[in-house]
Write a structure and sequence with these properties.
The chain is an alpha/beta fold and about 400 residues long. It is about 45% helix and about 15% strand. The structure holds nicotinamide-adenine-dinucleotide (NAD) and magnesium ion.
Length: about 400
């Protein structure tokens, strides 16, 4: 029986994680849940899974959860409730599925407490990859990827000598605007960008998929998870999202991992690793799919991928700066304040204007995040901006 703390249980990954638990209740117990503002869903999860305690970040939602289920669970009311739970002794595995920079400190706390980390929150590795990698080594902690591409890579390299990995091929769906020109992208609305062709996910990662920043963040994530140089990580657009990624070995052989696009499968793999617990998720019917296609990414129309490689090459706090500017830009786009192409522009401007330096400590990362957010917030608008609707 693995005892879980599900951080961000009301989100897309959190709900999928609880569905995996529901289907294999003899194998998992849920000791902690956390949410932000969806009090109703969190209260329903508390009634079903009976955690020992919950953390609710939004004060109004916290009051509602307390009123609804305060008699059956402890509702923590401190501002540092997330890190307080992360550091508790009586759970085994943290499912790190908060979105964005908010995931960093709880994940660091759980690593320091020696927990196994099932990692969905890629931003943690993007902003602090070197520090996180060193911490996991120091504390003997397993960092098991939930991201489907990284789960695929892990499955490809299991049992292979590490020196035999020649290249990682990260697959990308290309998002809803694959094939669009830079001009056409000017008029994209949030509603259009939120319509992902293959995956149902939270709004931030859905916009990241549309700009291809998600793939850029995943390149950085792969670099830290698998110790592979940036030049050995390539991106290939594969619109069917059936091959979740590939690994080329030193003898020229290439392995791919395939499956239907369903996040429960990589979550299940991370939670049951190194076993493969039998499960009845939807099976891949490859003959029905018929054709798998591949193309190179369009880095002219989708510059975010290039910006992520630039930040990875720059090193230090540059990836934290990239991430912070992206979070500010995506939020502004979702509020209808900037155009879709302005997301990449604002990130590029932030990377060139905000000074970056060494990332020697978590405090350096927090400072870089804070100063980039301040700069990006102050430079959101552009002079020729026309608001979009929808
Ligand atoms: P989501 O928006 O659906 O859920 C985010 C969760 O975090 C929610 O429970 C929310 O309440 C909580 N949260 C948000 N902001 C918070 C804050 N400031 N403080 C405390 N809690 C906060 O996001 P998601 O799609 O589940 O993605 C979660 C993470 O997993 C992201 O890092 C994403 O990149 C990664 N990921 C998601 C998918 C997917 O299919 N959704 C796939 C691969 C990786
Ligand atoms: Mg992914």
């Amino acid at each position: 029986m693995k005892i879980l703390a599900v951080f961000g249980s009301t989100g897309s990954i959190g709900c999928n994680t609880l569905e995996v638990v529901r289907r294999h209740s003899g194998h998992f117990a849920v000791r902690y849940l956390t949410g932000n503002s969806n009090a109703e869903l969190l209260a329903a999860q508390v009634r079903e899974f009976r955690p020992a305690a919950v953390a609710v970040s939004d004060p109004a939602a916290r009051a509602q959860v307390l009123a609804d289920v305060g008699d059956i669970t402890q509702v923590l009311d401190s501002d540092d409730a997330l890190t307080e739970i992360a550091g508790r002794e009586d759970y085994d595995t943290m499912v790190s599925s908060l979105v964005g920079f908010a995931g960093l400190l709880p994940t660091v706390t759980a690593i320091r407490a020696g927990k196994t980390i099932a990692l969905a929150n890629k931003e943690t590795l993007v902003v602090a990859g070197e520090i996180i990698t060193a911490l996991t080594r120091e504390h003997g902690v397993a960092l098991l990827p939930i991201d489907s591409e990284h789960s695929a890579i892990q499955q490809c390299i299991v049992g292979e000598p590490s020196h035999s990995v020649a290249r990682i091929l990260l697959t990308a769906s290309g998002g809803p605007f694959r094939g669009w020109t830079s001009d056409a992208l000017q008029a994209v609305t949030p509603a259009q960008a939120l319509r992902h062709p293959n995956w149902s996910m939270g709004s931030k990662i859905t916009i990241d998929s549309a700009t291809m920043m998600n793939k850029g963040l995943e390149v950085i994530e792969a670099h830290w998870l698998f110790g592979v140089a940036p030049a050995q990580i390539d991106v290939v657009v594969h619109p069917q999202s059936i091959i979740h990624s590939m690994v080329e070995f030193s003898d020229g052989s290439v392995k791919a991992q395939l499956g239907v696009p369903d996040m429960k499968i990589p979550i299940h793999y991370a939670l049951t690793y190194p076993d493969r617990l039998a499960a009845d998720y939807e099976r891949l019917d490859i003959a029905r799919i018929g054709t798998l296609t591949f193309e190179s990414p369009d880095v002219e129309a989708f510059p975010c991928l290039r910006l992520a490689y630039d930040a990875l090459h720059a090193g230090g706090t540059a990836p934290a700066c990239l991430n912070a500017a992206n979070e500010v830009a995506v939020a502004a786009f979702l509020r209808g304040e900037i155009t879709f192409p302005r997301i990449a522009e604002l990130i590029e401007e932030s990377l060139s204007h905000v000074p970056h330096g060494a990332a020697a400590s978590i405090e350096d990362i927090i400072d870089a995040d804070r100063s980039t957010r301040a700069w990006a917030e102050a430079h959101i608008s552009q002079t020729d901006f026309q608001p979009t609707t929808g």
